[in-house]
Amino acid sequence: MMERGISTSRVAETVRHPDSHFPARGGAIGCIKRFGIKTLKVIFGIRGKVEYVIITAYYL
């Protein structure tokens, strides 16, 4: 995320309050959220009950 200039707070906001979400490969979940003119896409998995594993995050 740091290499792409994406803050952890934006990733957390996208996962917690997405504009839309969809199933991804391997049981992962994809979320999309718009921030002004940019749209952030996050793919993540859930480990246990409260741990999220971010697979990728990027602006569309």
Question: What order do the helices and strands come in, and which of them pair?
Answer:
Layout: H1 8-16, E1 20-23, E2 29-35, E3 38-47, E4 51-59
Antiparallel strand pairs: 1-2, 2-3, 3-4
Describe it:
By secondary structure, the protein is of the alpha+beta class. It has one domain. Helix content is 15%, strand content 50%. The protein has 1 helix and 4 strands. Strands 1-2-3-4 form a 4-stranded antiparallel β-sheet. Strand 3 and strand 4 form a beta hairpin. It starts with 7 loop residues before the first helix and ends with a strand. The mean pLDDT is 94.
**What is the CA–CA distance across the termini?**
14 Å
Chain oligomer state: single chain
Total individual domains? 1
The percentage helix is 10-25%
Ranges where pLDDT stays below 50 over 5 or more residues in a row are none
Order of helices and strands: HEEEE
Number of helices: 1
